[in-house]
Give the backbone structure.
Amino acid sequence: MFYKDDRLAIFIDGANLYASAKALGFDIDYKLLRQEFDRRGKLMRAYYYTALMEGEDYSPIRPLVDWLHYNGYCVVTKPAKEYTDTLGRRKVKGNMDIELTIDAMQLAPRLDHAVLFSGDGDFKPLIEALQRQGVRVSVVSTIRSQPPMIADDLRRQADNFIELDALRDIVGRPPREQQASSEG
């Protein structure tokens, strides 16, 4: 499904990929992930999308975002919105679907293959639009978690589905809690 001469871009829905990897019991090594897709084709861009909490002195995702910036990723962030739902629970909303979609559509004329790291069914129209422009689309998510992290119609629409768990030995590392306890 991957060809060496393919102009390739990866689009990572940060929150979705994090949740999928966590459900499978491992963390993503983003250096290895970039190397893997560099090997599979001519990697034009590697995008990472995430919302950040405003006003917090320390955000646990900030070191990752900074590292990604310095290591060849195009990091797209926006402030997360905090609100209280109808039951009085504090909720955080930080949907990056529009930003990811616009970037993918703008890059499409210069791509042969787009790799979407998300299981969000809202991306089905994006996949259809990319395919109409002649871009092959692979989706990376998991059906091995309970419940599966990928929407069935997204998986069906993609030209290729890549099971995240199958990439574990290539781009994974043990979760941080396990690393800390095994290093002690």
Q: What stands out?
A: The longest helix spans residues 14-24. The chain has eight helices and nine strands. The beta strands are 7-13, 27-28, 42-53, 74-84, 90-93, 113-117, 136-141, 160-163, 172-173. Residues 178-184 have pLDDT under 50 and may be disordered.
